[in-house]
Amino acid sequence: MNSKVFMALRILLGLFVLVFGLNKFLDFMPPFELSDDAGAYFGALINSKTLMLVGIVEIVAGLTLIFNKFGALLAIILMSVSVNAVLFHLTLDQANIAGALVLLILNIAVLYGYKDKYTALLK
Q1: In terms of CB atoms within 10 Å, which of 35, 36, 75, 121 comes out highest?
Q2: Can you say whether the dihedral through the CA atoms of 62, 117, 119, 8 is positive or negative?
Q3: Which pLDDT score, from 0 to 100, does residue 85 have?
Q4: Who wins on pLDDT, 98 or 34?
Q5: Is the confidence at residue 19, as pLDDT, over 90?
Q6: What span, in angstroms and rounded, lies between the C-alpha atoms of 9 and 6?
Q7: Distance (Å, rounded) from C-alpha 119 to C-alpha 123?
Q8: What is the pTM of this model?
């Protein structure tokens, strides 16, 4: 992958997850309508403080991707957030799945860009 394209994708993903991670603490983005089931699930994530942990992971991952420190590691960790976001929207909130799909695609592209970092891990 071209280094400039990879850098742009890495920074874009970093900004994406940083903004959404900060939103979990600062609530600056307007909430979207959820079905009853999705609202109950989301409420359980909030009440159990799981969403706070996800926000911390997103903030740390965003900063590491933007500053390119430990980005390969956090891209792998962020993959669990990406897959869960897509599965949440796929099963409970199909109308708002676009952002989760963008997150997943960007995450896969960044993982591909870091592929040389994973060769020892995959041997």
Answers
A1: 75
A2: positive
A3: 94
A4: 98
A5: yes
A6: 5
A7: 6
A8: 0.90
> Is residue 31 left, alpha or beta, with left meaning phi > 0 and alpha meaning psi from -120 to 50?
beta
Which residues, 6 or more positions from 56, have their beta carbon under 8 angstroms from its beta carbon? 21
Q: What's the length of the chain? A: 123
Neighbours of 54 (CB within 10 A): 19
Exposed / middle / buried, residue 42 (Cβ in 10 Å: 0-12, 13-18, 19+):
middle
Instruction: Tell me the C-alpha to C-alpha distance, in Å, between residue 122 and each of 6, 61, 66, 82.
Output: 21, 22, 25, 21
Percentages of the chain per state (helix, strand, coil), in multiples of 5:
80, 0, 20
